[in-house]
Amino acid sequence: MTAPASTTTLGRWLPGLTTLRNYERGWLRGDLVAGAVLTALLIPAGMGYAEVAGLPPVTGLYATIIPLLVYAIVGPSRILVLGPDSSLAPIIAASIIPLAAVDSERIALAGLLSIEVGIVLLVAGLLRLGFVTDLLSKPIRMGYLNGIALVVLIGQLPKLLGFSVDGDSVISEAVETVKGIANGKVEWLPTAIGLISLAVILGLKKWRKAIPGVLVAVVGAIIIVAIFGWSDDLPVAGAMPRGFPAPALGGVTVSDALHLIGPAFGIALIAFADTSVLSRTFAARAGTTVNGSQEMAAIGTANVATGFLGGFAVSASSSRTPVAEQAGARTQLTSVVGAVLIVVFILVAPGVTEYLPSSALAAVVISAALSLVDIRGVVELFRVKPVEGVLSVAAFLGVALIGVLQGILVAVGLSFIAFVNLAWRPYRTELGRVPGVRGYHDVTRYPQAQHIPGVLILRFDAPLFFANGGMFDDYVRSKVVEAHAAGRDIHTVVLAAEPITEIDATAVDELVELDDFLITHNITLILAEMKDPVREQLARYNLMLDGKPRFDDSRFAPTTGAKIDEITGQIRTDIGRDDTP
User: Fold this and answer.
1) Which residues contact 179 (CB under 8 A, 6 or more apart)?
2) Which residues contact 279 (CB under 8 A, 6 or more apart)?
3) Radius of gyration (Cα) for the chain, nearest Å?
4) Distance between CA atoms of 385 and 389, rounded to whole angstroms?
5) Per residue in 151-161, is it b (16+ CB within 10 Å) or e — as a string?
6) Which long-range contacts (CB under 8 A, 24 or more apart) does 545-551 make?
7) CA–CA separation, 212 vs 219, rounded Å?
8) Under DSSP, is residue 428 helix (H, G, I), strand (E, B) or coil?
9) Pick from 27, 182, 201, 260: CA 20 to 30 A from residue 288's CA?
10) Cα–Cα distance measured from residue 536 to residue 545, given in angstroms and rounded to the nearest whole number
11) pLDDT per residue as tens, the chain (581 positions)
């Protein structure tokens, strides 16, 4: 039975309701466990990124709770985790700190900025600009995840070893980490807890998948630190602040809004670029698809909501999403559980995170990052199609060395170059008849292929446009000259035109010049298997020759085989006449 139109529309804009309606009991355990595991990361991450953004820690919890709940309703991705992000927090700080000196003013400005970011994304989503995610091919997504994994691993390694480093890039962080290890900054207690936690997570994942290793590691670390009183002897996440989300936009002005428009567009671009890659990648891993425009609108809605309720701009998390997936998340119920548990901890046990070692959290994040690494896939790309392997490595190096957005843009730019190069110099070949095989085939792949007397059959595997029109013209002429040099008397060139899906104005001029060249050599150009839309497009150019349409019906053939049968039949008929006394 077809669903009512209203139900279908509601499901499209509120995917969470569709998921709830079709929820399977077998998903529940995974979602609950993943939500509990995720909470252990959400709390310290939210508090920490709030401080990076120049805001009180509690705003980081608000910027976690609200987006999680909103996205669970409007978000198209099943397991994407939204929240404060390391790439956005410094931009937020740089945007609001010059405009405000006290926390209350900064909170209001951060909320206003988040609302503006949300509006930009909402409008872009409604205009269906999510097609930009189509530029993010598999090699780019693979390189992106490998780059994110490296960034996360280098960023978390010092925490695993019990010390901290300052660095403004992956390279500087790596250098400082090595220096810290060489200078004896490694602390044995947090290192031991971190390594044991990592071993538990990886070990259970390999040998006992039914047991949630991340939850075991986090809870175990909290219990051990609490029992032995080690909270003062090693870095811990710290206690949660009290308070609930509430409107905090008092005092903002039109001038403030105008000042924040530029940063809002920048943050919106970064947030969507990061989220779209992550969303499509994890959807592909789960065998599902995600609508880019819907994703854009969902992130926008989450940002508007958190901006009104004391939070700040958010995007998808490249460290927490893998944790959710690894812990068994199946739907957005995981995010709802995480948000609810944060509220519960704020109410009931705000001090529990005082016993959560930072090194145990680092182990959780590192284990998730390791699950993103796909070296074998990159090697396979190089084996099958080296240019795609290069694109993947370019995305990896870009994300790891110059930043997520910049790295993605570099890889997309290289993808365009590779595409143009492919279309500019496409595969082109002559076709012949292979004994015992139907159709006409590439003579370079089938050396036994036979030429058709008087006919040259060619194929050009790309649309004809300004960049390759001249090459197409030169190729056909060269093959005609080559055939004549080989003693073949060519009277017809048949172009197997099925791969040609477009002919622009520049290419049409080249086609006309080619046709004139062939006519001067008493050769007829036939366009076989040309798609109707392309043929109609060619007709709109109104090309004339001696007062008649240059390319009339006689210059087209439904199939290459049909035209060859017609030509060879005519040849046999002519020969028969010549032999008749």
Assistant:
1) none
2) 76, 77, 80, 133, 290, 295, 316
3) 31
4) 7
5) bbbbbbbbbbb
6) 545/515, 550/512, 550/515, 551/527
7) 11
8) strand
9) 201
10) 18
11) 444 444 455 666 788 888 888 889 899 999 999 998 888 878 877 877 787 788 887 888 899 999 999 999 999 888 899 998 876 887 788 889 888 878 888 999 999 999 999 999 999 888 887 776 566 677 887 887 788 788 878 888 998 998 888 877 788 889 999 999 999 899 999 999 999 999 998 998 888 876 767 778 888 998 999 999 998 888 887 776 677 788 888 888 899 999 999 889 878 877 887 788 788 878 877 777 788 888 889 999 999 999 999 999 999 887 788 888 888 888 889 999 999 999 988 888 877 878 888 888 888 878 877 877 889 999 999 999 898 898 889 889 988 888 766 776 777 787 777 777 777 889 999 999 999 888 899 999 999 999 999 999 999 999 999 989 999 999 999 999 999 999 999 999 999 999 999 999 999 999 999 999 999 999 999 999 999 999 999 999 999 888 899 999 999 999 999 999 998 875 544 444 333 33
Structure tokens at 491: 């009277």
Q: Tokens 């490249």 appear where?
A: 318
